[in-house]
Specification:
14 helices; alpha/beta; single chain; 2 domains; Amidase signature (AS) enzymes; globular
Amino acid sequence: MLDLSASAAIAEIEAGDLSAAELFAFYRRRAAEHGGDVEGGGLNCLTWVAEGVADASDGPLAGVPLAVKDLFCTKGVPSQSGSHILQGYRPPYTATAVKRLETAGATLLAKANQDEFAMGSSNENSAFGPALNPWDRGRVPGGSSGGSAAAVAAGLAPWALGTDTGGSIRQPAAMCGIVGLKPTYGAISRYGMIAFASSLDQAGPLTRDVTDAALLLKHMIGRDRCDATSLQFPQEIERPRAERLDGVRLGVPAELQNPGADFAGAEVEPSVRAAFDRALALAQELGASVQEVHLPHAAHALSAYYILSSSEASSNLARFDGVRYGVRATDSTGLLDMYTRTRHDGFGAEVKRRIMLGTYALSSGYYDAYYGRAQRVRTKIAEDFRTAFADVDLIVTPTSANVAFALGEKTADPWSMYLSDFFTVPMSLAGIPAISIPCGLSESSDAVGPHGGGLPVGLQIAGPAFSENRLLDAAHALEQAIGFPEGRARV
């Protein structure tokens, strides 16, 4: 049985009990068989799978196969960002984050399905159809990195890369019962990532356990001259080993203290609240203290986020006009008509919605009222976190207010869909790191997977900028104590 965590696979390769070629062949076969379109019985979570046998690698990642979200440019390999407008695009270079992992020895196994240009919370906005949740194929895997999360949860890849703009790593990780980490903004180069919102986008790992997340992160971080927003990480990422939380001060936003209360509009499912409360109790058993903190401006985070991210998307996506690369409308009558037809046919409904929203927010007469005000809210949210972290070491919330919902359940109600990211967006606006780990299974009768025992619930742990080592240690201690049955999602 080669269905191992990445760290375990590396140990076996180094011991001579397994070869990188055997491991790659195993995952390539599983990815090809189960990652394809739904009509063929697959999860539709992979848009491209490597052919042949991977070259041997002597790096620290020992040739362990890697799935990569489709918005990372990979030289000569389709990089389509889930959009018709980039269908078939094969870039001439590889994104820095991917290149660094390849240099460390990882091998590219597959490209993963996603919401178009990372705009979505369910992976239903992909031009190539929705990815399915391996816990229950009638439900979404979360988004926008839903394909990456589903592939790891289903055992089609030992680990994967995703991106997180407002929750797009953490939310699908929670819904698929795996680990997802959004690092400090700037920790990982954005060069070669097809942009959604440049001041928010950040790459990160989706893995089976916290140890694998730390290992992948270790080889991705660092300054890159190709990305002016990238930063030199102040310390090396260490392997998490903590088994207790003695002395760790955990903060819980005050709005979650009253049973049945909601967090500024995001109604928390009872089973999610129950799993969260159990995780808090377990943290206290491990030695942590839990206290109330206040994030007074968090209630405005979602509104500010959709103004800011849509404004940046409006600017970033202006380059897709059919002139330089990507799909071009051929039945046009002139240059302006070609622009119009290309963008009309190439972009999906959600991308068009956000482009229009962003263009309006940036337009003359509305810039200060919308974009400028949203930036001020963002500053206040960052200040709230700095104030809170003066009293606590880490802040904990549910990752998502709900478990994975049914396909099509929220597509007709964008605001309901946007609320899926309510707990993750404040951390993105503040630029701080946050991790989601599985903390239990739902108990309600309408949220039970085909394997029984409910659907995954995620616990989010956030820390100050560049506190990834502390974050990983705390997550590791809780992970060991929780003992989540992640193997149930294997196909």
